[in-house]
Amino acid sequence: MKAIADLLFEAKILKNIPRTGFAFLGAGRESVAEHSFTAAFIAFVMSRMEPEVNGQRLVSMCLLHDLPEARIGDLNYVQKKYVTADEDRAIADVVENLPFDNDIAELLAEFNSQQTREARLAHDADQLAFILDLKSISDVGGKTPEKWLPVVRKRLKTELGKNLAEAVSTRSWDAWWMETYAE
């Protein structure tokens, strides 16, 4: 139980680790845990839209995909040009002594390899979480997302991901409540 308690504390630390890409965007902020929740929720929705996929694997990959950042931090695209993180070692250290060590390691390896339908959808959920942030910032007057949105949309790998990005792009961030708002 000690190793499991340690894992829970390690996952919790992601609430305190900021996503570093927002500094380059010039607006917004988010913790790694907040991002992972949004990606996992998008994955849940995707699993209902494509019931033939293994929804538990899809959601689990999104929930876990940034767990190594508890040890290596959140390296953005600029930092990754200069800093090489040993994610494999971080994962090995995270799962050491866990009774389900292979489960976590296999899910992260599957996510990183992008060889399965679930992994490609998980990748898109990860990107869609960022697209939601960019669209929200844009809708409240931020200008830099206009440059970023096309770049992030090009990263999408699945038709479902592309369709969801299109739907997000054509809706206002507050339409979900504003359309029914009554004074």
From TrEMBL:
A molecular function GO annotation: 5'-deoxynucleotidase activity
Cofactor(s) annotated in UniProt: Mn(2+); Co(2+)
Ranges in coiled-coil conformation: none
Highest taxon of the lineage: Bacteria
InterPro entries: HD/PDEase_dom, HD_domain, YfbR/HDDC2
Top EC class of this enzyme: hydrolase
Record domain HD/PDEase: where: 28-140
Keywords from the UniProt entry: Hydrolase, Metal-binding
Keyword Metal-binding part of the UniProt annotation: yes
Catalysed transformations (reactions): a 2'-deoxyribonucleoside 5'-phosphate + H2O = a 2'-deoxyribonucleoside + phosphate
GO cellular component, as recorded: cytoplasm
Ranges that cross the membrane: none
EC assignment: 3.1.3.89
Subunit structure, as described in the record: Homodimer.
Protein's name in the database: 5'-deoxynucleotidase
Species annotation: Desulfosalsimonas propionicica
